[in-house]
Design brief:
mainly alpha
Length: about 100
């Protein structure tokens, strides 16, 4: 029963996180896209690490399904913190904007 809904939960989580980050960051796209790309790569590398561990140790079957919420939870929290700090500094004029 747990495994049948994992794909739906992961996709829904990614879409909702993306929408929340866009809403919080005032409509900018580069921050949420970068953050979700990094989170996706982190998730894939974690699955690779778990696969490597599973060769040598017996893993509990829910470990694979619990890694995504943990990575998304921690990753989104820190991503939003860093992006909001960036926007604060940008509003203050601390970040130089490139002009064409």
């Amino acid at each position: 029963m747990v495994t049948s809904d994992v794909n739906i939960i992961d996709k829904t989580t990614a879409v909702l996180v993306f929408a929340t980050m866009i809403a919080m960051l005032g409509g900018t796209l580069i921050g949420p896209v970068m953050s979700l790309t990094i989170l996706g790569l982190t998730y894939l590398s974690s699955l690779g690490l778990l696969y490597n561990w599973a060769i040598h140790f017996k893993l509990y079957y829910l470990t694979v399904y619990m890694i995504a919420p943990i990575i998304f939870g921690i990753g989104v929290d820190y991503s939003m913190l860093m992006l909001s700090r960036y926007l604060e500094e940008r509003v203050k004029g601390g970040v130089v904007r490139m002009r064409h």
